[in-house]
Prior knowledge:
mainly beta, 5-stranded antiparallel sheet, 3 helices, 40% strand
Amino acid sequence: MVDGVVVSGTDSSIISLSRTRNISDTMPPVQEPDATVSVVGISGAEYPFTNIGNGRYVTSQLFLDPGQFYQLKVITRDGNEFRSGPSQVRISPLIDSTYWNPDSAGVHIYLNTHDPGDKAKYYRWENVETWEYLSAYFSSLEYIGVNNFAGRNLTNQIYRCYQTQVYPYIEVTNTTRLSADQVNKYEIIAIPTGSEKLSVVYTDLVRQYAISKEAFDFWQNLKKNTEQLGSLFDIQPFTELGNISCISNPSVKCIGFVSFSTLQKKRIFINKNEVSLWYYAPYYNVYEPCFIQSAYPEVIDQFFLPPGGPYGNSMIGSGLDSAHLMVYLFSTKLCVDCTVQGGSSVRPDYWP
């Protein structure tokens, strides 16, 4: 399977390659390593991609001629060569606005765009979501080893994390039945009430492409499948293969549709304080409520040895007990270390 858009402009293009499998197979998809990926023009010019692992291939910038035809070329390590159908670069108009509205079901994010040249007609969007979330307790101490502790700073804090994901649903539309090439109030994301995504701050980076009618038909049919059977990343029963073919062995089939387009982007932020009645249920309360434990210095090591042991690095700090003796405070990893939930404690550069 081939997935990705070849972007003409200053943004990177990423192509993902994987092997299809039986619909009854519960194993994750097998990524295609060690392939050779490039874009070739009808003039003979060729632009190579770099293998960055996990079946992904990237090129940083491509400035393609809108008047020329291009193909994606893939040679797998077993020697098969695949090509996409010849395509011209389609020009995506600017995104006019993104905005959101709440209702009883959650928060809905919308988009407006239009093409004054009346040429785009068919649109596809990808969304990259990032949200901030917090652990139950702030950790001010780090366990280093036997009787050895260090204060935490911003470089190794584990209280505030950021989770990023590609929104796993297909968003396409067309304006062919309208009097103007204009998209109004298209819903690109729905965040259900109580989602962790809006527990603190949330952002979506929407990426807009102009696509062909053939690409629209492919993604629209695939969208119908995913709405019935799951998300884009679930196994799908494909009836339309797309525009990729194996020119070295026509009996080998390939699924995917590669488009060539300029890219328009717009980012939107939503703060939890802007949304009322969210009722977020923290991930760390799924199994049991969080509580703080304490231990005297002479026995604290037994809770943390070996480093990364039963309590990981879940020190909270220190204090005094009722007899005014020093104690160390700690809880479970789930309640102290936000990275347990899968996010990163590194603050994104674009964060407000």
